[in-house]
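Good morning N.,

You mentioned wanting to compare the apo and holo forms, so I went ahead and generated the holo version with pyridoxal-5'-phosphate. This is what I fed in:
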Amino acid sequence: MLLSGRVQKIKPSPTLAIEAKAKALKARGVDIISFGAGEPDCDTPDNIKDAARKAIDAGFTKYCPVTGTPDLKAAIIEKFKTDNGLVYTPEEIIVSCGAKHSLYNLFQAVLGKGDELIVPAPYWVSYPDMALLADAKVRIVTTKERDGFKMTPAQLSKAIRKKTKAVVINSPSNPTGSAYTTEELRALAAICIERNILIIADDIYEKLVYDGFSATTIAATIPEAKNITVIVNGVSKAYAMTGWRIGYAAGPKEIIAAMGNIQSQSTSNPTSISLKAAAEALSGSQDSVKTMCGEFAQRRDYIVERLNTIKGVRCFKPQGAFYVFPNVKKLLGKTYGGILINTSAELAAYLLDTAQIATVPGEPFGAPGYLRLSYATSLANIKTGLDRLEQALK
Ligand SMILES: *Cc1c(COP(=O)(O)O)cnc(C)c1O
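and this is what came out, ligand included:
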């Protein structure tokens, strides 16, 4: 066999695959309404694009420091100070080719054979596979819908073993949109401090929160928490910059240095032009974030309310991100248009084939019986898509 044992343990990202299928059908002229998007539907704000143009014109097109330029690191440090009340030095910051890349480097830096990573489910699809690529084991903690899909302190305590090295906290969450309160995070942080477990805080949806909810980073809940947490964040979601590939991490300098070594032997610096664009995103006007949040809040209210009027569907109202994660268990085991549907994966396939709507089934998120619908698409699309969904389930 030509392939390594490591690579044979993983699969391609299922969410990217579904969105690619929807896009391919659309390109063939099929009238698809996609609830599959994992990115904002608006364009990157003009001030950010201008900063990139300026970088090109100024000839800022060569190799840069591996872990990020001083100006971008300064903007990130300022962001942590203002948004989170956390003080970091440049050695405690690394800029990578997307938050996903920061997470990958982090997993490679801290996880290895014999280590266990705690991942609350429903989880973002890449955590388990990234842990497998680092030869580590994953311990899934299944959260309850009635707990708002949040891991309780009791669940965390029970999941910890001798081999437990780290836990992932993603708040607001992809796929549920659920977000922890400061008090809930503080309780989890206290356990991690006591049991000496590294916290991996994926805060990528921090700024996309609604109804006055304010997302706290777990690193800021107790003074000692900062020392055992690596925060991963980025510009992809908050600034509609998914294609620019800039993410960053902040944490203990030994870990950040190790991530930097991995990066220096693999990608080197992220794209120079994107580094300049990201600095403008963080330090320039934040009006675009406000506008986007206003739009998302409206869509969330609409989609949750309508889903809850559909018989057999129950939808939790999330605090953040741009996803809803309706429970469709009552729809399963029934026949639609002559087709027996037993799983949420079969339901998603049926909806794509018959109703031309793309959704992501719960299975790859570790939560069968649910669908993930992204509302990063126009209200008009959402309305038409839900009409089709209703029709297809009659
Ligand atoms: C989108 C996403 C990321 C990755 O973002 P990039 O910066 O584009 O790599 C990481 N974590 C979660 C939960 C996400 O949804």
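Residues 38, 98-100, 124, 170, 174, 202, 204, 234, 236-237, 242, 247 surround pyridoxal-5'-phosphate (CB under 6 Å).

Happy to go through it together on a call whenever suits you.

Best,
F.
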